[in-house]
Write a structure and sequence with these properties.
Structural class: alpha/beta
Bound molecules: pyridoxal-5'-phosphate
Strand order of the largest sheet: 1-9-8-5-4-2-3-14
Number of strands: 15
Oligomer: single chain
Distance between the termini: 17 Å
Radius of gyration: 22 Å
CATH topology of the largest domain: Aspartate Aminotransferase, domain 2
Shape: globular
Number of domains: 2
Helix content: 25-40%
Number of helices: 13
Length: 399
Amino acid sequence: MIPLSRSMIYLSPPHMTGEEQQYLNEAFASNWIAPVGPNVDAFEQEIAELVGVNGALAVSSGTSAIHLALSLLDIKKGDTVFCSTLTFVASANPILYQGAEPVFIDSDPDSWNMSPKALMKAFQESALKRKLPKAVMVVNLYGQSAKMDEILLICDQYGVPLIEDAAESLGTTYQGKASGSFGKFGIYSFNGNKIITTSGGGMLVSNDEAALERARFLASQARDQATHYQHSVMGYNYRLSNLLAGVGRGQLRVLGDRVAARRKIFDVYYSNLSDLPGIHFMSELENTAMNRWLTTLTIDEKVSGVTTEQLLTAFYRERIEARPVWKPLHLQPLFKGARFYAHERSHDVAEELFRTGICLPSGSSLTEEEQLRVIQCVRKVFDQPIRNRSYLFPGKQEV
Ligand SMILES: *Cc1c(COP(=O)(O)O)cnc(C)c1O
């Protein structure tokens, strides 16, 4: 029987612990509302320690952290930046803010992230033209790290700095090292849909403390040392408020639990859906422990007879929020005419992932009942509804 009013199931809603309030209360009690303040300092230190870098700068969004990284590398008009194509537009918009040109790099079929093969090709061609990119922007989608060892090797070979957009991969480790700590700069996002949230916010991390000092200066209106307001360069207003940093500190304490919850959600989807024809879950790279920010899968329509649109329509009717995989940036009207390097000649992996991929509701507060609804919905579309006593929660009795 269908309940009369089913509540909406969201893709990845904020998940508060209640302990965030304590940090907010402290900030109110001491009137450290703004600007900056002790929560900001502590939040930066806590993140830097957690991911194993020398320093961190708390900012108002992941996008502003990316913008600062590009500013620090002096990226400007006439420069190019190699950027993953399969990503949210925020990875590349700051390249445009700087007046530079993005060149898009295809995905690797194993990781869904930047293809080392396509990157190599882009570098080889740019070396021939004697115009190397000023930076490479690699994105770690859905909590999966890119093949960082191969990508770093290529960047080092050409002496080009790497920026790691780890907005979706806080809590992931790659070869035992925190995702986001591999490049010259790494960025995290604490937007409402991310694994932990400050309602809105971001972090720039680096081992280069002098560069972070410069970022701190740029992020607070680039005010020169003087008693009056003096400015020699253009700055931004990008700092995170002390209140929001307090929320972040409360959230950071449970990051491990959040990763465990999302990994478990993945396991349950996997146990209950992987038998369906034509379904392939994004697999975890070797030597990687993903945060499984979102559970993502592809559907091979030829095998399953089911399209992603059919599934999305069914979800919509059942009040379940699910999403297609990011639309590749080289296919976006905004980036019309931008150069693109495919993984293989005549095999655009990112476009294929966009066409066949789906993200399932994966919030760490998703209940078993809600997840059952999602699973039921998928299985109905595949015309293989759950039979009695066949729904599996790993480590539990069948229900
Ligand atoms: C969320 C996200 C961003 C942007 O972060 P904001 O904090 O929303 O500005 C950048 N890149 C990727 C891959 C993201 O998912």
